[in-house]
Design brief:
435 residues; mainly beta; Immunoglobulin-like; 4-stranded antiparallel beta sheet; 47% strand
Length: 435
């Protein structure tokens, strides 16, 4: 009987479904305002505290002991491995036990809305939502204002802080504010305006430019929401800026940025957008560039198009997106930059289909495969009766190594099979879902 079922499974075909973003199992209850990884542990800040996932979003647990009932605006890992949490009205909190409990670290803070956190060696910087920037040199025990050169620092909203290497062993600190972008070359002792703003809120990310230097991307959104927003780029530490066309047609703007280098030195830049802020028409999502911002591609399949993408974070081979209403979503990076990742000087000699990992799994697992030449590739998942459950891949692939994720959150526990076909190559492997 088993042989008959397996024979049926091998012959069964159906309509393809493209790879796309997969919704994790939470956290729900409000905007996912920030994401941070500590090793493989994923922390999400939302309007009701902090949640932790140790399995790429398969399950989440509240990590709020000691936190007040404020929205969490920022998360960061300190130089010693401690976690810092910035809240909207409750100041900054520290956890020395991986989120099990939190204690207040507010001595010296005169504004308790902490919208951004940055770590530069043993120095910890906190950007506020109405009081400028503060510095702690003792792991958050005490704070002092460092606002020399900032305009209207007593009421300034600092939406983001990033540290950028200079290439000579030193670091620059950039602050994205409602008055534009500021640069400090002396750990916040003084600041210089490098880009003027008109009520914009700037999100910043630093990446390699592939030649040993750095690029600073600044995503912005106009508070009025009628003129839209976008991205601008500086390749010379803020001396000059170039506007970037994402091909984004919405009137919203950029809320989050992430930069991810791969093993060949190629950096992919991800921009999380929000839809029309006037009436929330669809048009948000995630855009990716693999050529230093020269061109961008929307990679939104599966994401709700009427929600904000408020935060982005990368772990291993996956990108995570925090949204304004449906929790955290996950997608393999290789799906979004096909043809760019992988070592093109070491192309596979044969077709291959690897065993999924982890196996058993719950609810998600990764399947890796190789293609030695441009081919039409299909990978489908079946149950033991030969019924197709999902089509993970159904498109032409150039030579290279790839991975795709399968999620069985809506399936029952049991044995399933996945089958790859490309040219005359056909191979089937077994996977086990245990809930």
């Amino acid at each position: 009987m088993y042989k008959k079922l397996l024979f049926f499974f091998v012959l069964f075909t159906t309509v393809a479904v493209n790879a796309q973003w997969v919704q994790t199992n939470g956290p729900y209850g409000g905007n996912v305002t920030c994401l941070a990884f500590k090793g493989t542990d994923l922390f999400a800040g939302i309007s009701v505290g902090v949640y932790l996932s140790t399995n790429n979003g398969a399950s989440w647990t509240a990590a709020n002991t000691g936190l007040p009932g404020h929205t969490v605006l920022s998360l960061a890992m300190g130089a010693t491995g401690d976690l810092f949490c910035g809240t909207n009205g409750g100041g900054i909190y520290i956890s020395t036990n991986n989120g099990t409990s939190w204690t207040a670290d507010t001595a010296g803070l005169t504004n308790n809305g902490i919208s951004s956190i940055a770590v530069n060696g043993t120095n910890l910087f906190a950007g506020t939502n109405g009081g400028g920037i503060f510095l702690s040199t003792n792991n958050g025990t005490n704070w002092t204002p460092v606002n020399n050169g900032l305009s209207n620092s007593n009421s300034m909203y600092v939406s983001s802080l990033v540290v950028s290497p200079t290439g000579t062993g030193d670091t620059n600190l950039f602050a994205g504010t409602e008055a534009g972008i500021y640069l400090s070359t002396n750990n916040g002792t003084s600041w210089t305006s490098v880009l003027s703003g008109n009520g914009d809120t700037y999100q910043l990310v630093v990446s390699s430019n592939g030649t040993g230097g750095t690029n600073l991307f600044a995503g912005f959104s106009l508070d009025g929401g009628t003129l839209g927003g976008g991205i601008t780029l500086s390749t010379n530490n803020g001396t000059s800026w170039t506007s970037i066309d994402l091909g984004y047609t919405g009137t919203g703007g950029c809320l989050s940025l992430a930069a991810i280098p791969n093993d060949t030195g190629v950096v992919s830049i991800y921009a999380g957008m929000y839809p029309d802020s006037a009436n929330y028409n669809p048009g948000g999502g995630v855009f990716v560039s693999t050529n230093n911002g020269k061109s961008w591609t929307a990679v939104n399949s599966g994401l709700p198009d009427d929600e904000e993408v408020r935060s982005l974070a990368v772990s291993g081979t996956n990108l995570f997106a925090g949204t304004s209403g449906s929790g955290v979503w996950m997608r393999p990076i290789s799906e979004m930059i096909t043809g760019v990742t992988g070592n093109h000087d070491n192309l596979p000699a044969n077709y291959s289909l690897q065993q999924n990992y982890p196996n058993p799994f719950n609810p998600s697992t990764t399947i890796k495969y190789s293609v030695p030449k441009t081919s039409l590739v299909t990978i489908k998942v079946y149950n033991v009766l030969g019924k197709e459950i999902a089509t993970l891949v159904n498109e032409e692939k150039s030579a290279g190594n790839y991975s795709v994720q399968f999620t069985g959150s809506k399936l029952s526990s049991g044995v399933y099979f996945y089958r790859m076909q490309a040219d005359s190559f056909v191979q089937t492997k077994k996977l086990l879902l245990l809930k």
